[in-house]
Amino acid sequence: MATPAQAAISQQPMIGHHPGCNPTVYTLQRDGIEVQITDAGASLYRLRVPDAQGQPDDILCAPRLAEHFVANPAYMGATVGRYANRIAGARFTLDGTEHSLVANEGDNQLHGGEGWHRQLWQADILDTDSGPSLKFTYRSVAGEGGFPGTVVARVRYSLLADRTLQIAYYAETDAPTVVNMTNHAYFNLHGAHYQGLRGHHMRIPARQITETGPGNLPTGRLLDVAGTPFDLRQAQDVGMVVEGQPEALQATQGYDHNYVFTTENTEQLLDMAIAHSTLTGRTLRISSTQPGMQFYTGNFMGGQPGPEPDRPYDNHQAFCCEPQHFPDTPNQPGFPTCVITPDRPYRQTLVYRFGVED
């Protein structure tokens, strides 16, 4: 007999075909929210949320066919690891030993190189009193991507009351290493796919970003946002800002910057972003225990397959809010540490809250 959790979660094969990989899609429903999650990269696949008139629509930009989703070069909806964001020179030193990583963005590493987003994770349906929940597990052996230590990573998705999706991250290791996990969902709160970002009002209550230099790598300094296009402490239509091409955003062709919320590790949930679609009334509130959040406006998503396989996305048709440790933390001693040990595992929480607003 199926448990209540199993009865509340359906599953089916992902459409399409990828040789040697047959992803499964799991569907969770509650309070008018329907979220689909796949074991391919422990990824968000679809997310149907009602608008101000109660009409649901998918607010995730992502491919639909297995042959596109498993490759997923834009990390759409994926769990990113072992280290989210960039590591300069694809190398770092830990306890006196230099570790050379797989470079996949010029001389640097981005999002763990080959990364966890390309792996098929083990899925388990959980019995909980709080709502439908899925746990995904992946074992990353020592040396994978060049990283030390064998890491067992777990990602737990829970659809909670009040239209809340919680993602809990946990990782344990048999040797000191670095870990930085996030979700790389591409959101468009207008709902209908292939629309631009104009009409998305974004508020990010952070007064600093990590300053960047060549390669969008941090310099180690923090930059006050006041008086710059990075100041989103009052909500701005980020689609219009990006279209205006201010000089500060030209090198990255839009936002692709890490906002600083704390310079110390914390277990406290921090409010990081509020997004609002003026077309549909949908709102998305993001909070996390992470010290930073990368805000990205889909500057290079053009050409990626969407729900219509023969119609690729254009640039700037979605935004990403990726709570995480700061970029290049393994090479920046002044940033909050991302080192975990057998006695100090990795724990972080990410919360999405969906709503409507006139």
From TrEMBL:
Catalytic activity: alpha-D-glucose = beta-D-glucose
EC numbers for this chain: 5.1.3.3
Pfam families: Aldose_epim
Domain of life: Bacteria
Keywords recorded for this protein, A-Z: Carbohydrate metabolism, Isomerase
CDD domains to which the protein is assigned, alphabetical: galactose_mutarotase_like
GO CC terms, sorted: cytoplasm
Gene3D superfamilies: 2.70.98.10
One of the GO biological process terms: glucose metabolic process
Signal peptide positions on this chain: none
UniProt-annotated catalytic positions: H184, E322
InterPro entries in the record: Ald1_epimerase_CS, Aldose_1-epimerase, Aldose_1/G6P_1-epimerase, Gal_mutarotase_sf_dom, Galactose_mutarotase-like, GH-type_carb-bd
SUPFAM superfamilies reported for this sequence: Galactose mutarotase-like (SSF74650)
Pathway membership: Carbohydrate metabolism; hexose metabolism
GO MF term set: aldose 1-epimerase activity; carbohydrate binding
UniProt binding sites for beta-D-galactose: N85, R86, H184, A185, Y186, D256
PANTHER family named in the record: ALDOSE-1-EPIMERASE (PTHR10091), GALACTOSE MUTAROTASE (PTHR10091:SF0)
Similarity comment: family membership: Belongs to the aldose epimerase family.
Name the UniProt record assigns to this protein: Aldose 1-epimerase
